Amino acid sequence: MLLKKRLFNVTEYHKMAEAGILTERDRVELIAGEIVSMSPIGYRHAAIVKRLNDLLGSRFGERVIRGIQDPIILDNQSEPQPDVVLLRPRDDYYATGHPQPEDIYLLIEVAETSISYDRDVKIPLYACAGIQEVWLINLGDNCLEVYRSPLRDRFSHVQILQPHLKVSTIAFADIHFTVAELLGICELPALNFYEM
């Protein structure tokens, strides 16, 4: 006997929250119609997200709005909560609705134990939604995975950058980061910097 899953859309997901079925204590997100439990956040993961919030705030200032572990709507069946997003500024700070792909300059996920899930499930969803640039901070391997140029369910341009390299976003090529500072590790000598 084949069992069928009951998939939900964003409206139904929000109604569950309004009815108290899902509460703020439930660490869940809607991924491809399924309500998925999010991994517990470890100490290093939490520290990196705090560091990113400060670092991005000091570099970008008012050029962007930073979303920290806030929901975004990819389509009618996916409302993930990425670790960090850099959004187009809006006077209402998105009070009338969660940001959508066209609002996003850069999306950042931080992963240690969830690296396979982020790579195999979430990043393809971000590509399908047309998000132009995703950074995956890989804490296990101490590197930055850069995903650009979405093409259906994948990104056509993928790079893995080591700590001594530096990177900038597509949208703001004038602002640079070393991978080491994104990872929260000691700065390494500036040898053979590579600008993207």
Keywords:
globular; 10 strands; alpha+beta; tt1808, chain A; about 25% strand; about 200 residues; six-stranded mixed beta sheet
Describe the structure concisely.
The chain is α+β, with helices and mostly antiparallel strands and about 200 residues long. Helix content is about 25%, strand content about 25%. The chain has one domain: tt1808, chain A (Alpha-Beta Complex).
What's the topology here?
Elements: H1 10-18, E1 28-31, E2 34-37, H2 43-60, E3 65-68, E4 84-87, E5 104-111, H3 115-129, E6 133-138, E7 143-151, E8 154-161, E9 166-168, E10 176-178, H4 179-183
Parallel strand pairs: 5-6
Antiparallel strand pairs: 1-2, 3-4, 4-5, 6-7, 7-8, 9-10
Your description of this structure?
The protein is of the alpha+beta class. The protein has a single domain (40-183), classed as tt1808, chain A, CATH 3.90.1570. Helices cover 24% and strands 27% of the residues. It is built from 4 helices and 10 strands; from the N terminus they run αββαβββαβββββα. It has helices at 10-18, 43-60, 115-129, 179-183; strands spanning 28-31, 34-37, 65-68, 84-87, 104-111, 133-138, 143-151, 154-161, 166-168, 176-178. It has a 6-stranded mixed sheet with strand order 3-4-5-6-7-8. Strand 7 (143-151) and strand 8 (154-161) form a beta hairpin. The chain is globular. Residues 188-196 have low confidence and may be disordered.
